[in-house]
Amino acid sequence: MTVTVATLGFPRIGPRRELKFALEKFWSGKSTEAELLEAAAGLRAAAWARQAALGADWLPSNDFSFYDHVLDTSLMLGAIPERYGVAAGTADLATYFAMARGTTGESAGCAHGHGHTAQEMTKWFDTNYHYMVPELAAGQKLALSSSKIVDEYREAKALGYETRPVLLGPVTWLSLAKGRDVDPFDFLDEVLGLYSAVLTQLAHAGAEWVQIDEPILALDLDERQRAAITRVYAKLPRLGLKIMLATYFGALEDNLTLAVNLPVAGLHVDLVRAPDQFDKVLVAAPKGLLLSLGVIDGRNIWRADLEKLLDRIEPVAATRDIVLAPSCSLLHVPVDLALEPKLDDEIKQWLAFAAQKIDELVTLKDALNGGRDWVAEKLAASGRAAAARKVSPRIHDPLVAARTASITEAMRSRQSPYAARAAVQAGILALPPFPTTTIGSFPQTAEVRHARAEHNRGNLGDAAYERFLREETERTVRWQEEAGLDMLVHGEFERNDMVQYFGEQLAGFAFTVNGWVQSYGSRCVRPPILFGDVSRPKPMTVEWWRYAQGLTARPMKGMLTGPVTILNWSFVRDDQPRSASCAQIALAIRDEVVDLERAGCKAIQIDEAALREGLPLRKRDWQAYLDWAVDCFRLSAAGVGDATQIHTHMCYSEFNDILPAIGAMDTDVISIETARSQMELLEGFAAYRYPSAIGPGVYDIHAPRVPSVDEIVRLMQLAQAHLAPEQLWVNPDCGLKTRKWEEVKPAIDAMVSAARELRVRV
Ligand code: GLN
Ligand code: ZN
């Protein structure tokens, strides 16, 4: 039986973020469209060449995107909202970028008088990749508006590569779409017609196969979605192309029977997230269905134990043709481990990035086709790395193990209930009603970023950099005093990123130089690699806090990132449950919280920006996640006495379905994003009888617009319709690091004036 190797998609940003730089050059008017197109073609050619050289048999095309593959699909279908003023069928690159970035180049939701807002952006399933949410309005006309998929197929062919084009499936696309006064599924027939046309074009261009991604099949589906799947895949396979239907990010479970019985030629299943579905899929899959086994982790950076995998796959390969593949597109991992000069050899041998993952798949293929001896050396190396990782003292710290083993419920509980704590804290902090504060960061100006870059390059010495940061901090503290804020922050100028800053100071984390992963558009992140047991060798923020508090008599908040957020924004261990890694991080943060208190800090904010993002894809798994996530937060926070006020911040606007968990975090103050939702969000908190204090964000920091005093007063009055005045704080929606001082100053002035007005009215 034959074994082949496929990649479902390769990172599109390029090994050194070439796409990012090409895009930003074009957007700033420093290059022409022709130059951008040429750069993109070069990246595609390089990606095909690389994958082919590594030995992949099935190369993807149309996995490239200038911004986002969901947006590509929207454009293909001509789902162009009216505000862009372009009829379906006539879209060009300018329309595409307008949909991606708005016509003023601002991100989603930033209406400020002129230009058109971008499409909304949100997280792609449970990844840290963001897609542009498709929009559909009643009566909208769709029409094919992009020939990208056919063009890129032809482009590869001209270069000598026979590819399997990748297309986001219609049912997933409709499921992700937002309808204005219409149910997106009302467009099913129209969308199906357009997909049929595209597939027909591909067949004419000479394609034999197409990969259609329907990750939605790993989620809870309703009847309408299931019916749509049946309908779509009754029709699409009849158009002359063989379809590899790709599912990923989880198990098919209750959708298994549906999926294996569709008249498609192949089915891809994720066996990393869902190893247990292997046997079930084998039993259920008809003989003629080509199975694509996602055996190498497309979501994480660990090297696989190839012999162990072979033991699983060999018996299957003896009975049927199989394709070996990463669990999902390699979009979610960095390109090439060979570009990491700074990672030491011990850690490096445990890792595999996109290129190395394809090499692993090819090794598996060679072993299955030619016998294990054929690749004995590679298998041995993989086995040695796996064995070393199991026992390395770099990973396993007995002190951490002992500490996590002795965590008790008492360690997660504050000394007294909220009401008692609040009374003690009120006596100490003596804050006015409607106290004002900010979320933590102040503008990371070009100057701040430049100083950091120079320091990293070694051009700016430690002492000079430190002096620069102190001056910046002092100026910010002084300004906050002048502005009349009640609880101050130090401004976070010393932090490159709210997770990386802590990861760099904790044992158990490693960092890459070129390990970039696309977050959205041209924006890339380098997630920390959590490889070992976590501990905190020494205090991380206490000195900065002490310095800042020393400048003022007003209370200075300690500022930390919470354990769940650090976990969710990192590549994490696959040799222990996420919850175990999270508990270790929680203990490290707890140490910092206790040290801050000891240094005299009266209020400590532990940000959990990413707590909600970690929710599992299946509703049934939510509670278990929330239980351990909240436990970890409490563990990080509850080491302090009643007098210390614990804050948290969460930057999203969906809380209703997780309110009990938010309540269980037992914070003294929570700040949340609400400005854009007219405080409606607080209804849920009120209905739930949320007991402690809330700072509902009074203005949107994602846009440069400065709010007026009146509008803030009005918003806070709306808030009082739901919550008692003594529960309310006044703060912006989120940190101010992306804004300019010219915007921040008048906005905060307006906020403070509004709070003063509210105090008079009470
Ligand atoms: N303290 C952080 C800041 O102000 C919080 C940011 C966030 O949660 N996204 O930047
Ligand atoms: Zn935020």
Automatic annotation (TrEMBL):
Binding site for L-methionine: 439-441, 492, 607
Keyword Protein transport: no
Any one Gene Ontology molecular-function term assigned to this protein's record: zinc ion binding
Stretches assigned to the Cobalamin-independent methionine synthase MetE N-terminal domain: 6-318
Catalytic reaction(s) noted: 5-methyltetrahydropteroyltri-L-glutamate + L-homocysteine = tetrahydropteroyltri-L-glutamate + L-methionine
Binding site for 5-methyltetrahydropteroyltri-L-glutamate: 17-20, 123, 128, 523-524, 569, 613
PANTHER family given in the database record: 5-METHYLTETRAHYDROPTEROYLTRIGLUTAMATE--HOMOCYSTEINE METHYLTRANSFERASE
Active-site residues, Swiss-Prot/TrEMBL: 702 (proton donor)
Cofactor binding: number and manner: Binds 2 Zn(2+) ions per subunit.
Name of the protein in question: 5-methyltetrahydropteroyltriglutamate--homocysteine methyltransferase
Residue positions binding L-homocysteine: 439-441, 492, 607
Lineage: Bacteria, Pseudomonadati, Pseudomonadota, Alphaproteobacteria, Sphingomonadales
Organism: Sphingomonas leidyi
Binding-site list for Zn(2+) 1: 649, 651, 673, 734
Functional note: Catalyzes the transfer of a methyl group from 5-methyltetrahydrofolate to homocysteine resulting in methionine formation.
Domain Cobalamin-independent methionine synthase MetE C-terminal/archaeal: 434-756
Enzyme Commission number: 2.1.1.14
Pathway field: Amino-acid biosynthesis; L-methionine biosynthesis via de novo pathway; L-methionine from L-homocysteine (MetE route): step 1/1
Family of this protein: Belongs to the vitamin-B12 independent methionine synthase family.
Transmembrane segments: none
Gene name of this polypeptide: metE
NCBIfam families, A to Z: met_syn_B12ind (TIGR01371), PRK05222.1 (NF003556)
